[in-house]
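Collaborator request log, item 7. Partner lab (contact: R.S.) asked for a structural prediction of Amino-acid racemase to inform their binding assays.
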Amino acid sequence: MAFLKLYKDKLSHNYAMLENWFLENGIEWGVVSKLLCGNKLYLQELVKLGVTEFHDTRITNLKMIKNVAPNAQTVYIKPPAKRNIPSIIKYADVSFNTSYTTIKLLSEEAVKQNKIHKIIIMVEMGDLREGVVGEKLLDFYDQVIHTPNINIVGLGTNLNCLNGIMPSHDKLIQLSLYKQLIEAKFDIKIPWISGGTSVTVPLLIKEQLPKQINHFRVGEVLFFGLDLFTNLTIVGMNNDVFRLYAEIIELYEKPKVPIGEQGFNVVGETPEYPKEDYGKLSYRAILDIGLLDCNPQYLIPDDENINIIEASSDMLVLDVNQNEAGYKVSDLISFKLKYMGVLGIMNSNYIDKVVV
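Returned to partner:
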């Protein structure tokens, strides 16, 4: 049996730190909850903390959020697909947009459902994922400003997620200037400059964030306390809100190197082994979790003497060396996890989810 624990006291501590930073700087923010994959139990913990704005990329997750927190503001944080538009209008109060064609379709559906749908126009700032390029932004805004049942509530940008381009004071100042140009030309006010994500939090802490940036979308810092500039834990935050526990289902002393003619394994690879391991023995533990649940590269054993060897679809093999810790079959091995590790496990129906 394997299970994932969420430690609510550690989550609460990280949330309180973020809430304090944002309040001190007059910044509104929402939690990027896509990591939780719509898990009702964990979403309820966010509601208990006081979260009133949720950001997600999956409509089924937004539907669950509305079930758990009917009055919360839901934000769909990628450009909508045409076939999803009726559901987006139904379950998302706000969506990110970069296409005039899509905004027209959102408008038509919002009219049908008798709703006002809010949008944030995403601006390309160098990471080359979603975003209207800067030189076309004024013309784009002119196209969409009078679209029926559409309320433009912000300009936003996304950095770091695709090509690793980091936010900077200059990039965020440029985003602020786009806002000023639009407001001057069209004689309107844009409430949000949504330039903040987890990767931008260190700029806020170091007081290097332009004052005009007044909206954040935060997930990774909340759940992992991670400074994405340094890849280290932010001072005072918890990096182990989540912990995975998996049971040992076999434990034997075996050769460190496989015996026989070697072909390809289940993922089409041929593992290689150091020459110094030939002829040596060590204890190998098999756990009841595999590639179907999580990629091993995102698991960090709490016991530093454990090495992850490889995984098949449903089993994970560990080298516990000479088993100084005295592990035995049915013992639990615990792991910290990286972001993609939690995401994989949350997306697995085979791993129990627990709140501590």
